[in-house]
Amino acid sequence: MPGLFSAVATTEGISVRVQPRYAADQSDPANGHWVWHYHIRVENGSGMEVQLIDRHWIITDGHGVRKDVMGEGVVGEQPVIAPGGSYDYVSGCPLATPMGYMVGRFGMVDGGGRRFEVAIPGFDLLSPDAKGAAN
User: Start and end of every ApaG domain (predicted)?
Assistant: First the structure.
């Protein structure tokens, strides 16, 4: 299934795969409102159980305005991922421009209690109204 994802980053055996999708049904371009959904898969290729503790997203709109979004876990969960296992979730991002860019990191703790960070690969948010890549 890796072919379903447009971006991937691997840190210490943990792969993060991303697939964004423009949500035309939730967007209202005439009123300056565009929405994307993104599917994230976190795959544990390490030899230890890991837990996703927090996240930090850097979201840049089409005007270059940056917004940092930080918080505990993802979609209300702090999933524990066994070696060889994976965790999937879908979330969304509204913007006031027809394109943007997202990149970030997940804070993780391994089975030994060691905290480390895992890269979330950068990806473009492009609507049919976009005039090019945002990054």
Answer: 8-132
pTM above 0.85, yes or no: yes
d(CA 109, CA 81): 10
Task: Provide the token pair at 63.
Answer: 């005007």
Reply yes or no on whether the pLDDT at 127 is more than 60.
yes
Domains of the chain: 2-126 (2.60.40.1470)
Distance, C-alpha 65 to centroid of its chain: 18
Would you call 89 exposed, middle or buried from its count of C-beta atoms within 10 A (0-12, 13-18, 19+)?
middle
Q: Which run of H or of E encompasses 81?
A: strand 80-81
- What sign does the CA torsion over 27, 24, 98, 20 have? positive
